[in-house]
Design brief:
The protein has about 180 residues and is α+β, with helices and mostly antiparallel strands. The chain contains ten helices and five strands. The strands form two sheets. Strands 3-5-4 form a three-stranded antiparallel beta sheet.
C-alpha cells in the first residue's frame, strides 16, 4: 500500500477501526459496526463515506434496506482491512485512542529504522512540523518512541526509534506500506 493511501485512511479517526472490525468478521452493516467500534453516528458515517471515496468499501448491491445499507470491502479494501486487523490485534484497549490520531501510524511506519526528525518529515511530505512534533511527543510519553539526542553534533540532533508497542506496530505497518520519493 502506498504511504499516501495509508495517510488518507488514518486521516479519519474511525476508518481503521471499521476496517479492523470487518477483517474480524463483523457484518458490513451500520448497527453491528457501530456497536463493535464504539464510534458516534456522525463520525462513523463520515468515516464510512471516506472509505467509500478511497475505494476501499462499496455498497453491496441487492442487499440491505435503503435506509440500512450493507457494505463490502473492495479488493484493495481487503488488504487494508488485513493491515487494520493486524494493528488492532497488537494494540490493547488503552492504546486505541492514540491509534485513532491522524499521524500516529504513518510516523510509526517511517520509524522502521531510527530516524532524524527531517527524515521522518521527508517520508511523510504532507505533515507539518508541529503535527510531527506533537505526534512524536505523544508517542514518547506512551513509551512507543524513544528519543536520543546526539550531543556530539552541532547543533544537537534528535534521533527517534520505535520501542515496545510502537516497535511492533512499526514492523507491521512498515512491511505493508511503501514510501514514495
Amino acid at each position: 500500500m502506498d504511504i499516501r493511501l495509508f495517510v488518507n485512511i488514518t486521516s479519519r479517526a474511525w476508518a481503521l477501526p471499521i476496517l479492523a472490525q470487518l477483517d474480524a468478521g463483523i457484518a458490513g452493516r451500520q448497527a453491528p459496526l457501530l456497536a463493535a467500534t464504539g464510534a458516534g453516528r456522525t463520525a462513523f458515517a463520515q468515516s464510512m463515506d471516506h472509505l467509500i471515496t478511497l475505494g476501499l468499501m462499496e455498497r453491496n448491491p441487492g442487499y440491505g434496506h435503503p435506509l440500512r445499507p450493507e457494505f463490502r470491502l473492495t479488493p484493495l479494501g481487503k488488504s487494508a482491512a488485513k493491515l487494520a486487523g493486524d494493528i488492532h490485534r497488537i494494540a490493547d484497549e488503552t492504546d486505541r485512542d492514540l491509534l485513532r490520531r491522524s499521524w500516529t501510524l504513518p510516523v510509526l511506519a517511517s520509524l522502521q529504522t531510527p530516524r532524524h526528525f527531517i527524515e521522518i518529515k521527508r517520508d511523510l511530505s504532507p505533515i507539518t512540523d508541529r503535527a510531527l512534533s506533537q505526534s512524536l511527543k505523544t508517542m514518547e510519553a506512551r513509551n512507543w518512541v524513544n528519543r536520543q539526542v546526539d550531543d556530539l553534533t552541532r547543533p544537537p540532533r534528535s534521533r527517534y526509534s520505535a520501542v515496545s508497542t510502537g516497535s511492533l506496530l512499526s514492523d507491521v505497518t512498515a512491511s505493508a506500506v511503501t514510501f514514495v520519493q
